[in-house]
Design brief:
mainly alpha, 2 strands, 61% helix
Amino acid sequence: MGVHVHDYTVQCVLSINLFNEMIYFFIWWWIIIVIVLTIINFMEWAFKLVFTVDRVTYVKKHLKFMNKYDKNDHRKLINGFVFHYLKNDGVFLIRLLAKNTNTLMTSEIVAQLWDNYTEKHRGRMDYTKSPTNQRLHDSSAQSSARSRNNVNGSNNNMYPLNSLAPTSPPEPYNFGVTSANHQITL
């Protein structure tokens, strides 16, 4: 009676496993591609945030698009606009706005900000100085003004907020709520 024992090892291949393998292979490559693109995008945004020349050029591009920038008249003003008015956050927000809207909308907003800036700041500050030097210059001008006001030895500017404090407490506000016999103030 011959019993035949087979010593073969056979792999069970289900058709669903072949599909799963292809799906996971695609997902693995997709994640690798997304990681690489995310790193490249991060490097691009980091470059845009760190280098100041790109900020000024970017804002100039939008101002030129709206015919608001004149190279001869606005050379000093553009640096003050970018570094003192918009600062890093403002230029970053303008870039995000440009990514999510069109160039015309972004340029109109930049042009409006430029108009507000030039209206308020034309001729008031020397923008060839660095921000640190500008603060030092402003603080020395304020201290010399204080010393000029302090002619008779009294220091009235020592507590500048005292002049804003009320002399007596304010009256309670009456909301017009009345009870049967008297009026209630809250």
